[in-house]
Specification:
single chain; 145 residues; 5 strands
């Protein structure tokens, strides 16, 4: 099992952070275009799920999967969006995404007076803590196949 990449978006679609670990294939477009494409897809899926669900959904959209990867989604009450792409063997990781938000983002971005809110994260401490956290996950594998 493995982690491919992580996106963090603000409520307006600005990509605040992007990291990748075991990504085998690049998108063939600029990173900025990739961010816009990902945010647009998330917006559309959330809208579709909200309108088409036959039952009242408290948590809304949590994940979707293709034949090759699984996209995990977590949205905070303030509209921050955390998107983690993994292989298919990884189950529900909503708690892990919440932990990235509460223990890493809040601690090293929100509480850091040098980090501007709603702008791309420049903190090297944040990047290091996030990378160490992801690499320490039980389903992270540096040699993904």
């Amino acid at each position: 099992m493995t982690v491919h990449n992580l996106f963090i978006f603000d409520r307006n679609g600005t990509c605040l952070h992007y990291s990748e670990w075991n990504r085998k294939k690049q998108a063939g477009i600029s990173k900025e275009e990739e961010y816009k494409l990902m945010f647009g897809m998330l917006f559309s899926i959330r809208s579709f799920v909200g309108k088409m669900s036959p039952v009242d959904m408290k948590e809304g959209f949590l994940s979707f999967q293709t034949s090759k990867y699984k996209l995990h989604y977590y949205e905070t009450p303030t509209g921050l969006k955390f998107v983690l792409n993994t292989d298919l063997g990884v189950q529900n990781i909503r708690d892990i995404l919440h932990q990235i938000y509460s223990s890493i983002y809040v601690e090293y971005v929100v509480k850091n007076p040098l980090c501007a809110q709603n702008e791309p994260i420049q903190s090297e401490l944040f990047r290091t803590k996030l990378d160490n956290f992801i690499r320490g996950l039980p389903f992270f594998s540096a040699r993904a196949g």
